[in-house]
Each structure stands twice: as C-alpha cells, then as structure tokens.
Design goal:
The protein is an alpha+beta fold. It has one domain (47-299). It is built from 3 helices and 19 strands. It has helices at 10-70, 97-114, 123-126; strands spanning 73-78, 82-91, 118-121, 127-128, 131-136, 140-145, 151-155, 164-171, 177-179, 189-196, 204-210, 216-221, 228-237, 240-250, 259-268, 276-278, 282-286, 289-293, 296-299. Helix 1 (10-70) runs antiparallel to helix 2. The radius of gyration is 33 Å and the shape is elongated. The protein starts with 9 loop residues before the first helix and ends with a strand. The chain crosses the membrane at residues 15-34. Keywords: Membrane, Transmembrane, Transmembrane helix.
C-alpha cells in the first residue's frame, strides 16, 4: 500500500513564510537604497550644474559691468581694411573708480558665498603700479592711472603700429591759446584730431601724418595761474614708439577741467576675431569648479 504524503508541519509553513517575507523586505530595502543613491546622484549633478552655471554667470556679469565700473566705452570693429579699437571716456573720470572696484569685489564675493563657491577679484594685479591696463589680443594696449587722469595707447609689437588714429576731444572750458603740432606730409600713421569746447567758434580739425620715430605735441592752453592745459602727444612714451597720450593738467582754482574723448585706433587687418578687455584676474572655485581668468574680455 502506497502511503499518502504527510501534510507540512506548522513549523515548516512558518519558516517558508518568514523566508519569503525576509526576501521581500530585503528587496524593498535594496531597491530603496538604489533609488536613494540614484536620487542623491541626480541632486548632486543638478547642484554641480547649478554651481557651474552660477560661476559662468558671475564671470559674464563682471565682463558686462566693467565698462560701467570704469566709466568707459569699448568696442572693436573688424573689416578687410583693418582692426578698429574704439575707446570713449572722460578725463579725469567723474567716478571714483577704485572705490567702485572695491565695492564690486565685495559684492562678487558675497554672491559667490551665496552659491557655495569662492569668487575673488585680484585688484592688486589689476592695478599694476597704480595703472589700469586694457588690451586687445591684437597687441594694442591702453593704460590709465587709477584716478583716470590720462590715457595712453600703444602697440606691444612694432609690426602693429597704428595706421590711422581719429581723436575727438571736448573740453568744458574755453581755451585761450593753441600750440599746434607740426605733422608731416607723409609717415607711418595718419592722424585726424578734432577739438571743441563750450565756444563753438573754437572748433577745429587738424590732420596729417606722424612718424613713429618722431614726437609731436599739441598744446591747448587755458592760460590760468596756476597753469591749466591739455597736452595731446604722439610719439615715444615710456619707451613705446608710436604711442598716443591725452593728458589734461589743471592746478587752477577754477571750474575743474573735464575732458571727454573718443579715439579710433586702427591697425592692420586680421582674419582672426579680435577681443578686447582688461587684465583683471578672476578666480572661481568650488566643488568640481576651478576657473581662473587672467583677462576679462569685455568685447569678443
């Protein structure tokens, strides 16, 4: 006689049920951990992208704000004839530029801290020997003291001397005497100088050629005591040939002398896009972020 199988004991049923529940619980725990890990990774990636985006925004904001901070306009125009750098501003500036920069440095640090990144503007490197340095990557440099009392433009390479210089100057005071420069009939650089002041009868334009090896100065004198004048110089300045400098000087007790200027500085054509900006180092550091920019390209 074949025996019938015996029914499982209650102990075996309990073991099977417990084991099944254990496997189910283990699966739920592992699944939850995997989901949590995946969610954490997604959030970390989102945070990383957000930080990188914020860093890029800080850098872009600085480039946009620099012209306003320096009270200067900067544009580059390229064509088949040449590379034109356009600069516009006032001498001296009616803004306290260094105070503006210090305030901006503090603000950009605070914005960085709010995003858990370290943002730092190196103003010591920016203000070299108390001069603010701007440049193009076409080897043109302009330099101004921190009080923006004058501007000097020159080329770092002798092969890139200016071909044309257009200068426009407006003075808030009427001149009394002029000592014109004597330009040449031919030379390396064609110079066009236009002047006006509050007296429309004083407007004039002077044109001619300058040779980079010679020095030329146009003196606009207000005949005050102590003296007050504007000196416009083309020649060798600080050992740089073919330089241009606009230098107002005022020691009188009259209405402060204010000079508004615009300059077009044209050099040889270049097929490569030319950028222009300032030597203002910016460093931005954070998790997976290490950005160091030595030049802020305001125009590119």
């Amino acid at each position: 006689m074949i025996p019938f199988p015996s029914a499982p004991s209650p102990d075996k049923k309990g073991f099977v049920l417990s084991f099944a529940l254990f496997i189910l619980a283990l699966y739920i725990v592992v699944y939850a951990q995997l989901q949590a890990s995946h969610l954490h990774e997604l959030r970390a990636n989102e945070y990383r992208v957000w930080q990188q985006t914020r860093a890029a925004q800080l850098s872009a904001d600085l480039r946009l704000d620099l012209n306003a901070l320096l009270n200067q306009s900067l544009v580059v125009d390229q064509n088949d004839i040449g590379v034109n750098l356009f600069l516009r501003g006032s001498l001296p500036s009616d803004l306290n530029v260094y105070t503006n920069l210090l305030r901006y440095q503090s603000q950009i640090q605070k914005l960085g801290q709010d995003s858990n990144i370290v943002a730092w503007l190196d103003l010591n490197a920016f203000v070299q020997d108390l001069n603010i340095i701007g440049r193009t990557d076409h080897n043109t440099v302009w330099k101004q003291p921190i009080d923006m009392s004058r501007i000097t433009i020159y080329s770092e390479q002798s092969s890139n001397f200016p071909e044309i210089i257009d200068i426009n100057i407006h003075s808030n005071r009427e001149y009394v005497t002029l000592t014109p420069w004597t330009l040449d009939a031919s030379g390396d650089t064609y110079i066009r100088f236009r002047f006006e002041d509050s007296n429309s009868g004083h407007d004039f334009t002077a044109t001619g050629w300058g040779s980079v090896g010679n020095d030329y100065t146009y003196l606009i004198d207000f005949n005050t005591t102590p003296s007050s004048y504007i000196a416009l110089t083309f020649g060798t300045i600080d050992e740089n040939r073919g330089s241009l400098r606009i230098q107002p000087y005022d020691s009188s007790d009259m209405t402060p002398l204010q000079v508004d200027y615009s300059i077009r500085w044209q050099t040889a054509a270049d097929a490569t896009p030319v950028r222009a900006g300032y030597d203002l180092p910016l460093s931005i550091m954070g998790k997976d972020i290490n950005v160091i920019q030595s030049t802020q390209w305001v125009y590119e």
